[in-house]
Specification:
The structure holds 2 protein chains of 2 kinds. Chain A is an all-beta fold. Chain A is built from no helices and 11 strands. In chain A, strands 2, 4, 5, 6, 9, 10 and 11 form a 7-stranded mixed beta sheet that branches. A 4-stranded antiparallel beta sheet of chain A has the order 1-3-8-7, with no helix packed on it. Chain B is an all-beta fold. Chain B is built from no helices and 12 strands. In chain B, strands 2, 5, 6, 10, 11 and 12 form a 6-stranded mixed beta sheet that branches. Chain B has a 4-stranded antiparallel beta sheet with strand order 3-9-8-7, with no helix packed on it. Chain B is globular, with a radius of gyration of 14 Å. Classes of the chains: A mainly beta, B mainly beta. Chains A and B meet through strand 5, strand 9 and strand 10 of A and strand 5, strand 6 and strand 10 of B.
């Protein structure tokens, strides 16, 4: 079974619709992240959470919100989707103690391809 | 601000040959980590190798090794004995946890291994 899961895997929606992308993990990690990937731009951090009560904005948080419902669940919402939010979205987790170090290796979900028409 | 630059958008290599992917970064941090991630056509992001900045020894993982030049802020990935399964997008990433959390990815290098 996958350690980090994302639902849905693919979604097509219309401008102005509210969309929620969900992420669940069984790795027991406290840290969770949302990234978006655009061609030619790599991955950019949207939000991150180091525990259930800790939510932080990343590089490109405008137009997005998140909810950390439990240690294992971290949701990303687009309150009113717009076409330039069309992208591949990744959830990731980390634990600085993995491999005995503090490297914060990220463990990624399979991604959600979102298309906003 | 931290930046990560991958100047090679696309590369190709013959099967069984060696290829080197370049990455440079800029930071004022003293404690940080560098990573190479692989994204095959399945789009799953997979860690290939990591390097702690405080370690002088270059990291190796089987056919993958890095050339870490801290003073030059360079972190290249060498793939030896390239295999068709190495065909993927490769991302260099920088991570630092002092102060504001930072995790920056480069724009990627698309590598194609030719039979």
């Amino acid at each position: 079974d996958a350690d980090v899961t994302q639902t849905p895997r693919n979604r097509i929606t219309k401008t102005g619709k509210r969309i929620m992308l969900e992420c669940s993990q069984t790795k027991g990690h406290d840290r969770m992240y949302w990234y978006r990937q655009d061609p030619g731009l790599g991955l950019r951090l949207i939000y991150y959470s180091f525990d259930v009560k800790d939510i932080n904005k990343g590089e490109i948080s405008d137009g997005y919100s998140v909810s950390r419902q439990a240690q294992a669940k971290f949701s990303l919402s687009l309150e009113s989707a717009i076409p330039n939010q069309t992208a591949l979205y990744f959830c990731a987790t980390s634990d600085p103690r993995e491999r005995g170090g503090e490297s914060d290796e990220q463990f990624f979900g399979p991604g959600t391809r979102l298309t906003v028409l | 601000a931290q930046t990560v630059t991958q100047s090679q958008p696309e590369m190709s290599v013959q099967e069984a040959e060696t290829v080197t992917l370049s990455c440079t970064y800029d930071t004022s941090e003293n404690n940080y980590y560098l990573f190479w991630y692989k994204q095959p056509p399945s789009r799953q992001m997979i860690l290939v190798i990591r390097q702690e900045a405080y370690k002088q020894q270059n990291a190796t993982e089987n056919r993958f090794s890095v050339n870490f030049q801290k003073a030059a802020k360079s972190f290249s990935l060498k793939i030896s004995d390239s295999q068709l399964g190495d065909t993927a997008m490769y991302f260099c990433a920088f991570g630092a946890t002092s102060g504001t959390y930072k995790y920056i990815f480069g724009t990627g290098t698309r590598l194609k291994v030719l039979a």
